[in-house]
Design a protein that fits this description.
alpha+beta, N-terminal domain of MutM-like DNA repair proteins, 2 domains
Length: 248
């Protein structure tokens, strides 16, 4: 990986599901990274030739931080990229659920993109499925990029109980969920994400969408719509929050 990244130019940074994708251009000369050997043979040459992508998955607690190299590295810093600007790009992951990889071609996530999928295609994803709608939303092979917080918040806005079977929801319910999911994700992006524990952006700044949460993390607190206490159950191994009155 160090050899594949050395002396590359970052052309574009974008998202594919829960993955951060760096499109890297080949430079005129790509010297071996410090600590690597040039005699690795044809396999390494194949990796280094042409454009490549660096794929980052933050897992549960991972962070990418752009920092002055004079600043101490945080604990659990597992990778450091030295940028031409003199700054460092640090991958910090206390729980070690994150992943780093190199891809030679266009990286595609396993499921559909929730912000661009058409309503009819969205409805078709859940046809005949017996798992709960909460579990279906978290299934990255169906929709890539939907996490626990945004599944709960979307289901609340769509007025759907998380435990309902995905394949038994009506077309109107799924249309509402499609609209709610897009609205929640767009609002969360504008607010910089949800900093409910240790999440920060690349500059170390916290997000603010947690101030707009209507159910997630609000167990026992009154629903912002009807006043009923928010309940918490476990579905698909994840803590799940909902309003027993608003969500039918």
């Amino acid at each position: 990986m160090a050899a594949a990244l050395a002396n590359r130019r970052i052309r574009l940074v974008h998202r594919v599901g829960k993955h951060i994708v760096f499109d890297l251009e080949e430079s005129a000369a790509s010297p071996a990274a410090p600590g690597t050997k040039r005699s690795a043979g044809k396999r390494r040459a194949a990796v280094l030739s042409g454009s490549v992508q660096w794929i980052v998955h933050l897992g549960m607690s991972g962070r990418l931080l752009v920092a002055d190299p004079r600043l101490p590295q945080p604990p659990h810093t597992h990778a450091v990229l030295h940028l031409a600007s003199g700054r460092e790009l640090r991958f910090v992951d206390p729980r070690r659920f994150g992943r780093l990889a190199i891809a030679a071609g266009d990286f595609e996530g396993p499921g559909s993109e929730p912000l661009t999928i058409a309503p009819e295609d969205f409805i078709g994803l859940f046809r005949g499925r017996e798992l709960s709608i909460k579990a279906a939303l978290l299934n990255q092979s169906l929709l890539h990029g939907v996490g626990n917080i945004y599944a709960d918040e979307s289901l609340f806005r769509a007025r759907i109980r998380p435990a309902h079977r995905a394949g038994r929801l009506t077309r109107e319910q799924l249309r509402r969920l499609h609209r709610a999911l897009r609205a929640v994700l767009q609002a969360a992006i504008r607010a910089g994400g949800s900093s409910v524990s240790d999440y920060v952006d690349a500059d170390g700044s916290k997000g603010f969408f947690q101030t707009q949460h209507r159910v997630y993390g609000r167990k026992g607190k009154p629903c912002r719509v009807c006043g009923a206490p928010i309940r918490r159950i476990v579905l698909a191994g994840r803590g799940t929050h909902f309003c027993p009155r608003c969500q039918k």
